[in-house]
Amino acid sequence: MKREELVLLYQFHDAERLERLRAVLKALHIRVRVLKDEDHAEKIGFLLGLKGFHPAKEREEFTFPHEVMVLQNIRHKRLDAVLEAIREAGIPKIQYKAVVTPFNTLWTLQRLCETMQKEHGAMMDGAAEGNA
């Protein structure tokens, strides 16, 4: 049985870009959920609607200036096809993307964002060293 594919979108403030992205995902029969700024405090599992997750009780201030795309049940060749369809639609690259895993469903969206930002920074530092 095929599991439902879902994409969470966070920090997409350009309405035209968001609608273009939603149209591409809809054409691929992928459900989309656009998150609110305050959703950073929620666990990924809660945002996906998984059983056993409850809303966050506390919310601290958090600012993340980058667009984030979280993909559930989209892997391997299907992931490549989805990313290619987005690129072919002329949508500029989304820097922060994550695939849902059993581990990160337990993380808050804030932790996922911070982890991706650290990894992205480390990759950029590595690229800079390779070009030196």
Give the helix proportion (percent range).
Answer: 40-55%
- Radius of gyration (Å): 15 Å
Main beta sheet, described?
4 strands, mixed
Spans of 5+ residues with little confidence (pLDDT < 50)? none
Oligomer: single chain
- What portion of the residues fall into strands of 2 or more residues? 5-15%
Q: Provide mean pLDDT, rounded.
A: 93
- Number-wise, the strands total 4
Distance between termini? 49 Å
* Element string (H = helix, E = strand): EHEHEHEH
- Provide the structure class: alpha/beta
For the largest beta sheet, what order do the strands appear in spatially?
2-1-3-4
Write a brief structural summary.
This protein is of the alpha/beta class and 132 residues long. The protein is 40% helix and 14% strand. It has a four-stranded mixed sheet, sandwiched between helices.
Describe the overall structure.
Strands 2-1-3-4 form a 4-stranded mixed sheet, with helices on both faces. The mean pLDDT is 93. The longest helix has 23 residues, at 109-131. It is α/β, with parallel strands linked by helices and 132 residues long. Helix content is 40%, strand content 14%.
